[in-house]
Amino acid sequence: MLSPLLCLLAAVAAPALAGRHEPPVTSVPQLDLSRYAGTWHEIAHLPVSFQKKCQGEITAQYTLRDDGKVGVINRCRIADGGFAQAEGVARRVDNHPGRLEVRFAPDWLSWFPWAWADYWVIALDPDYQWAVVGDPGRRYLWILSRSPSMPRMQFEELKARAAAMGYDLEPLILATPLE
Asked: Which of 58, 106, 128, 154 is most exposed, with the fewest beta carbons within 10 Å of its own?
C-alpha cells in the first residue's frame, strides 16, 4: 500500500513531468548546398569540448566536392594569437535536404556510425545570410552569419527559434560582439 505522502508526491510530480515534453527539432525543408557553401562566421554556440580553445574569429568554410560531399574547415583564433583548424567532411542524409552528417575523424574511420555527427540546419535565411545549426539531441547549436557580426534583434529572433525547439540557451556562448 502506498503512503499518503508518496501518493501526494506522485500527484504533484506527474503533471510537471508530463509538461516536460519538448517540441521536435526540425530541419529546414530545402537546402541548396551550392548557396550554403562558402564562409560562415560563428556568432554564438552552445559549449562543446572541441571549441574550448577558441578565443574568437570562429569560422566555418564549406566547399562542394566532386564526390557530392562537402569539405569542411573549422577555424578559430586561440589564446596565443594563432589559429586552430579542423578539417572534415559532410554528407547529406537521405530524404532530408536540411540534414547533414559531419565527420572530422580520418577517412578510414568513416564506416563507423559514431564517426559521424548530426548537423541539421534548423533555420535559414532565404538569402543564405544567416543560419542556425543544431542536432536532434539538442547538445549542439551554432548561430552563423555570412558577416562577422549580427544585429542584436536578429540574434534574439534566432535564439527564440532555437528555444521554441527546446534548446536550453542558458549556457550559450557569444563568439562575437553584436551590432
From this structure: 106
